């Protein structure tokens, strides 16, 4: 409405900024669209039942990614089983027990530091500590333990967020009825952190699926098909590591794109479930 | 009663240990990197190691100078910031202030997806789209170059920059903007002259976070940068600090392997500096 009175300089500034905003946003959106569509178009035709249900065979010169899928499942399960209790426990300590502000600050700073460390460094330290010092050799378990350290801050943070929403009056009420500290935590606090743990779980799965640098030297790149017990103690490539090996070392771009498409679909599903779960919990909280 | 107290103390102790695990992990990583990184630096000499221009780890007379890697990492990160920050920043301002809520929801979901795509997928698309594209466009023999890595890194840091900037911009008090509008500024002027300056420490934190992401990325960069230890040049094959570690680790031994640990230590020091900067900006944001 004021447009007529604006000076030329102001008009030019406004137009320039508006254009820059729009162009950037369109560029970002177009980039995502291109990546998703390109990977799916190049990848989906290469996905066949044979590819996902067999293991690679040198005799018949065929590639199958079943071992990589199973390795990914094992490593996700092993990591979650360890990281969820550790992360949730640390969050409970911070919100319920810790009185010393300095200690809380130190733990939170440590968690921030952990989330800033590049995965290649995790891979290196994981190799030195788990594979060599603890004598685990290159194995899925060593990889999973490395991923536990990487995902600890995520689970801790999401659990802490959800614990903050448990009203103090609930705790006071339980204490007032004569419950001990542990009883209050078990009956009042822990049920309140379920949504945080679930969110942390989803985010961690996403990160584990996408991780490659940390696993290269800790879990290795074998394609053997094992059960979960043997699988965890022997080396194995996850889907991302297999993608890297097939694309960079062997030039098998068809297989690489098939894996990329599978990873892309899984990423879409994980993002979708994170959004839906977040919405569901937000709604439940407001009721 | 006494038994009860003991039980409570045990539980308290267990939770305390869980709480201390993160500190333990940071210490573990620091100690391991320092212990395994120092010997090679001692043997090579810190000046020769940090400022040596030649890396020939498997040559008969091996040379372990990591200046090419340090400079490549610095240039690569700077390039990614120069391209990624303006785009991310402008997108964040639009989404936080100007966009229709529905548009915002959709594009935010897209940005989240961008953050979730595994880095090897970026590397794969980069290898098959970007690298040949650069080769044809600039008419050079091989497109796997610092330039390709910069583009991939710029895309990969976009989500961090957009998300952290949006959080900072959303936190700007509505009253500031209303006052500016009431004084006759147009909405666009208000966004850039009132909202953005108010959110500046949060936006600075977004940039620093982007720097951390870019300097730490290994796999995607490894797939598009050609991986030759040249001094950095835009259209030449280069090797980063991260890819130097990743590419030789599998078959290294002796001094060569120790030198790789030293590279990781240098990378770690960079990251610690960046973390300190990040903390500084985030704290400023909370107080401001």
Keyword list:
heterodimer; A: 287 residues; mainly alpha; MetI-like fold; 2 domains; 13 helices; globular; B: MetI-like fold
What structural class is derived from the secondary structure elements of chain A? mainly alpha
Q: Using the alpha-carbon principal axes, give the shape of chain B.
A: globular
CATH class of the largest domain in chain B equals Mainly Alpha
Radius of gyration of chain A, CA atoms, in whole angstroms: 24 Å
Quick one: which chains have the greatest interface?
Answer: A-B, 89 and 84 residues
Provide structural commentary.
The complex is a heterodimer of chains A (287) and B (288). With 287 residues, chain A is mostly helical. In chain A, 77% of the residues lie in helices and 0% in strands. Chain A folds into 2 domains: 3-46; 50-286, MetI-like fold. In chain A, helix 1 packs across helix 13 and helix 9 (194-210) runs antiparallel to helix 13 (253-286). The two termini of chain A are 42 Å apart. Chain B is 79% helix and 1% strand. In chain B, 51% of the residues are buried. Chain B has a two-stranded antiparallel sheet. Chain B has 2 domains: 2-51; 66-287, Orthogonal Bundle (MetI-like fold), CATH 1.10.3720.10. In chain B, helix 5 packs across helix 6 and helix 9 (200-216) runs antiparallel to helix 12. The model of chain B has no long low-confidence stretch (mean pLDDT 91). In chain B, strand 1 (55-56) and strand 2 form a beta hairpin. The interface between A and B is large, with 89 and 84 residues.
